[in-house]
Design brief:
10 helices; 232 residues; mainly alpha
Length: 232
């Protein structure tokens, strides 16, 4: 599934990859201009988070289409494939789809000398948890909607609420602590806060470690429940 819906999608429809980069790159440009380059490292670090989160949320459209139009889940129910297998297959395809954007931001990060071996490995771990959390949210949405056309409006709203409003592209210290914890309902918030701390851009907040872990487990559990796997 990762090969067919990941690598094959990049080759068949590379315009979708470009479209997924439009918002992060636009915000990067605006932040660079407005801050006169002072906050560009925040925007680069947040770009990793935004790419993963936005692609994870956008995958709700694919998951809903597979369930409602193609009836793929109905086919898999009669096999040894379970809901978790199905979700992991699509999730890894979304990771593959995000690779071009991650490579682009890796080049930008290297240009600004952001990386070391330690913070790179920690960032990979943060992004993996974020991938599972946001993909799980997409499966929850796909399991609840009754028609594919309803997905796009929900995704558009959540993409702003869960990737732009959180301190993804700006220092998390700029917002009050109560608002930070309110925005932490989006897994992009603890991921961005941890990334800023790991890259020494802002003080490290250890509270966000259990927040991201608990959210990932909770969202994955809800996704398994709402995937509507029915055995006959």
């Amino acid at each position: 599934m990762a090969w067919f819906y990941g690598f094959k999608t990049i080759r068949r429809a590379y315009s979708y990859v470009i479209a997924s980069l439009i918002t992060p790159l636009t915000l990067l440009f605006l932040i660079y201009i407005i801050s006169d380059g002072r906050l560009v490292t925040y925007a680069i670090t947040g770009g990793f988070v935004a790419i993963i989160a936005s692609n994870g949320l956008a995958s709700a459209g694919d998951a809903a289409f597979f369930r409602l139009q193609l009836k793929i889940q109905d086919l898999f129910v009669t096999t040894n494939i379970g809901p978790l297998d199905y979700m992991l297959g699509l999730t890894f395809s979304f990771i593959v789809f995000s690779i071009p954007g991650l490579v682009l931001y890796a080049v930008l990060g290297a240009w600004y000398h952001l990386f070391s071996l330690t913070n790179s490995l920690i960032l990979i771990g943060i992004l993996l948890l974020l991938t599972f959390a946001t993909s799980a949210i997409s499966f929850i949405i796909a399991g609840l909607v009754g028609h594919v056309r309803n997905v796009w409006g929900i995704i558009s709203i959540l993409s702003v609420v869960m990737t732009v409003l959180p301190p993804t592209f700006y220092p998390y210290r700029l917002i009050p602590q109560y608002l930070l914890y309110l925005l932490a309902i989006s897994p992009a918030t603890p991921a961005a806060v941890l990334a800023q701390g790991v890259f020494n851009l802002s003080p490290f907040d250890p509270v966000m470690i259990p927040v991201l872990l608990i959210e990932t487990i909770a969202y994955v559990g809800l996704a398994i429940h709402f995937t509507r796997w029915r055995e006959k």
